[in-house]
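Aim 2 progress update. The chain analyzed this quarter is reproduced below.
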Amino acid sequence: MATFIEIRDALMPVQDPEIRIGILDLGLIYGVAIEPSKNNGGGQAVRVAMTLTSPACPYGPMLLGQVHHALSQLKEVKDVNVDLIFSPQWDPRSMASEEAKDMLGIF
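Predicted structure tokens:
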């Protein structure tokens, strides 16, 4: 059974390609749900709610694909859905980790 820790670990290396900071540190992941897969093969379905640093981010499709790929590599995960949302709007001052804020020059 996939755990939230395994999901976190799978997403840890995924970085925003423009600013080279991890999406978890940036606070781009708004939520994760793990459910039984509705496919006959069993396993689990993972649904991720995430945003981008900007609605016009040119790397958005690539970033969504990286999240999907990272989670689909987990043995127990049979279905991955990545929901792109923009509410609430991403704000690095309140959503990014302290380390990411330092890298972004936010004090």
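The first strand starts at residue 15 and ends at 16. Helices lie at 4-11, 23-26, 60-72, 92-95, 98-104. These observations will guide the mutagenesis experiments scheduled for the next reporting period.
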